[in-house]
Design brief:
By secondary structure, this protein is of the alpha/beta class. It has 16 helices and eleven strands.
Length: about 375
């Protein structure tokens, strides 16, 4: 399994802010799980922001490894802390560990037991299980659709369909994103020799300037930044083009499921309540990210609010309205397994997912399904 590599902040032209999120959710850097776990054991803890002493009794403290910096992507966790949902479920200190640095991959942190829960994605957890024998399971998915896309701009050379790729310059970040993009091409029968791949970083100014015609991005981030520059973003989403991966998944040890099932169910209940509030209030979600949990990140309130609104479309679907947040239908589970095979990881649903905890949570408290 390959771990997320750190983002490097590059110089950005005046007027174009570097994205305050990440593309590392589904990408890797070359270290196996055990190697990254060793690094994780030597890493530093996150700062005080995102830590709360709820005074709860029952399950004690819990550490949650985030998949990236403390921006809008973790609004549900912020609400669960601020409104005391974790404390009500019996947790004491809740430490949200910021991701983004080498050694903070969710799988590595969970395997090293520095976090009980890690936010990740099937494209990272599945290879850890298959290639490294990691005893991990996914117990729920915050994003029902992954946000990966190609973004271009109307004012230059829009790329609306896979057919439009021919003859274009496509910016793709090195590492795991290359594997995801290759899978996108395979899923759509696209011949990579018909266009030029340009190695890029994570700065969308290369699209604005015309250095590339399209750029591998997040639906909830770079298109919003480009629109803020007065451009008209055009997106081609991977989820609708053969790679329907879920994202921001809850990854845990199999032994935690076996030995601390009630704790994980309590965690999921708090998360459901937190994300229900976050979905209902994008403005407050953004404020918590900008003023509290990401106060040292120079996040912009307007941009974070727009991301929160866009993010809601990934969190809430007809299926989650019917079945509850984080749930996955059998069809969606199978689609993820098939998509993993496309990018080179053969795994079964039973090896990767255990959604029975969520089933029990909603069976025991149907009122958590808010529709």
């Amino acid at each position: 399994m390959n771990a997320p590599a750190p983002r490097t902040r590059t110089a950005v032209p005046a007027g174009l802010a570097l994205p305050a999120s990440r593309r590392s959710l589904l990408r890797g850097a070359g270290l196996g799980v055990l190697g990254v776990a060793a690094l994780a054991a030597c890493g530093e803890e996150s700062g005080a922001a995102g830590t709360t002493d709820g005074g709860g009794e029952g399950f004690g403290d819990i550490a949650v490894q985030l998949s990236w910096i403390k921006n809008i992507e973790f609004a549900g966790e912020y609400f669960a802390i601020e409104r005391g949902y974790y404390a009500e479920e019996g947790f004491g200190t809740v430490d949200l560990l910021a991701g983004g640095a080498a050694g903070t991959a969710a799988e590595a942190m969970v395997l090293s037991r520095r976090a009980q829960v890690g936010l990740s994605a099937p494209t990272l957890t599945a290879p850890a299980i298959v290639n490294e024998g990691a005893p991990l399971k996914i117990i729920g998915a915050t994003f029902q659709l992954n946000p990966f896309c190609l973004v271009s701009v109307e004012e230059r050379t829009p790329v609306r369909t896979v057919e439009d790729l021919a003859g274009k310059r496509i910016g793709v970040q090195t590492g795991g994103n290359e594997q995801i993009f290759a899978g996108f091409c395979t899923a759509n029968g696209v011949d990579p020799s018909t266009f030029t791949i340009v190695p890029v970083q994570y700065d969308p100014s290369v699209v604005a300037s015309g250095e590339v015609d399209a750029f591998m991005a997040y639906l909830t981030n770079e298109p919003i930044l480009l629109a803020g520059q007065g451009l008209t973003p055009v997106t081609l989403g991977f989820a609708e083009q053969g790679l329907p991966f879920v994202a921001e998944t809850f990854t845990v040890l199999q032994s935690t499921i076996d030995d601390q099932r009630d704790m994980l169910k309590a965690f999921l209940r708090a998360e459901v309540r937190g994300w229900t509030d976050a979905v209902a209030d994008p403005a407050e979600s953004a404020r918590l990210a900008v003023e509290v949990y990401g106060a040292d990140l120079d996040l912009e309130l307007e941009e974070q609010t727009a991301e929160a609104e866009a993010q809601n479309e990934l969190v809430v679907t007809d299926d989650t309205r019917a079945n509850g947040l984080f749930t996955m239908t059998e069809e969606l589970v199978q689609q993820n397994v098939e998509a993993l095979a496309v990018i080179g990881t053969d795994i079964t649903a039973e090896q990767l997912f255990d959604l029975t905890l969520l089933e029990e949570v909603y069976a025991e408290d149907p009122g958590l399904v808010t529709g």
